[in-house]
Amino acid sequence: MGLRRMLWNYTGSTHDDRTYFTPAERFYHVDHGGTPPSLPPESWRLRLSGRVARPLEITYTDVLARIETYGITRYAKCLQCLRDPLGDDVEKRWYASSGLWGGLPLAVFLEEAGVLWGSTRINYGGRDPSGFFSSIPLESAMGAREGLPVLLVTELNGRPLPHLRGGPVRMLVPDMLGFKSIKWIDWICVTDANIPNGWYERNRGVILPSAHKDPALKTTARIAPVPSVCPEHPMHPRLGHFPACQPLGFRGYAVAGSRGLAGVRFQVREFHPIGPGAVIEDRMAGFEPPGAWGLDVPFPPGVLHFSGETPMRWPLPFGWVYWHAWFGPLSPGKYVFEVWALDAEGHEQPDPDPNEHTGSARREEVVFHVAW
After folding, report:
1. Distance of alpha carbon 245 from alpha carbon 242, whole angstroms
2. Which of 14, 161, 297, 298 might form a disulfide with 167, Cβ 3.0–4.6 angstroms?
3. Are the beta carbons of 51 and 118 closer than 8 angstroms?
4. Could you give the CA distance from residue 96 to residue 178 in angstroms, rounded to a whole number?
5. Which stretches of 71-160 are DSSP H helices?
6. pTM of the entire predicted model
7. Average pLDDT of the chain?
8. Is the dihedral of CA 17, 23, 29, 35 positive or negative?
9. What pLDDT digit, counting tens, does each position of 249-283 carry?
């Protein structure tokens, strides 16, 4: 397969509505050569070939028939971009979105095709005009992480998967960064390769370290321009000056990677131009509870890790959670706010994987002003 020049197109969501699931039209968007023409479901085909006993050409009707037989698999999953800029334009740096995804485990068709002994990975791609493609270990495609399988997705937030989000069918890999969850999927090839293969895996556009070609979703906390319950009170330190006469509250999201999210810590320091200033606050932020799902349809049944609409664990695996840090009041002056996540194995962000080429995990710190 020839490699063509890749044109980047990154679009972050412009704002958040204080809901857990991002509306489909407000997801962050990445493509590498433009968006392909929309395809009606009845015209969609998926070629499954390579090291299989029975190559398949799968139709949308085939997927729906298997869903009728096995039931639809639904779970919550945050998609996070490999690039997560920390620039000053807080309205355009939102490169993470959360969805309630539904579809069929890819393993169903891999088992029907009869994967040959000695196979190790699958390569796969979609109708992205650049020819963008990726790969994952076969064991990831056949198994499940935290009970969540790799999906051929047919719905998002309780509705059919829209074209801009990769419809009529896309790939969803729960434990890895977003570039493994390819939109508009139309081919899969089972291989016996010993190394990962794909655009990024070949260092096209992004240089992945040699031992980290399948980067996992990192446990990361970010400050976000999320509205307050009190509309007049800004929730991001870059959105203005803050009064000295009242407590302050900043808000953001934290992503639970494969190790699980244990907490979010923040620190407020006096600003000093040389070296760190005196610490004013250093403690844990609070997690906001589940419940504001933001769906425009009834909450669908059978969501993994849920009992009805109630999550059986919180935060959810490979999902996000909103955090809220209250502190102050502060005296007039200039301050630094820093936030970072802690995972369930005892690591503090950016550990255990601080390599920026496998996804940004830098601690975010922001200078803000307090005045009368």
Report:
1. 9
2. 161
3. yes
4. 9
5. 107-113, 138-142
6. 0.90
7. 86
8. negative
9. 888 889 888 889 999 999 999 999 888 889 999 99
CA 167 → CA 39, 122, 179, 194, 202, distances in Å? 8, 21, 16, 31, 26
How buried is 318 (Cβ within 10 angstroms: 0-12 exposed, 13-18 middle, 19+ buried)?
Answer: buried
Residue showing tokens 């699931």: 21
> What 3 state SS string does 148-196 have?
EECEEEEEECCEECCHHHCCCCEEECCCECHHHCCCCEEEEEEECCCCC
Q: Do strands 121-126 and 220-223 pair parallel, antiparallel, or not at all (unpaired)?
A: unpaired
Short-list 74, 133, 147, CA closest to 104:
74
SS3 234: coil
Identify the CA nearest to 139 among candidates 173, 168, 113: 173
Q: What is the pLDDT of residues 311-360, one digit of tens each?
A: 999 999 999 898 999 998 999 999 999 999 999 999 999 998 888 777 77
Residue labelled with tokens 């906390």: 221
Is residue 36 scored above 80 in pLDDT? yes
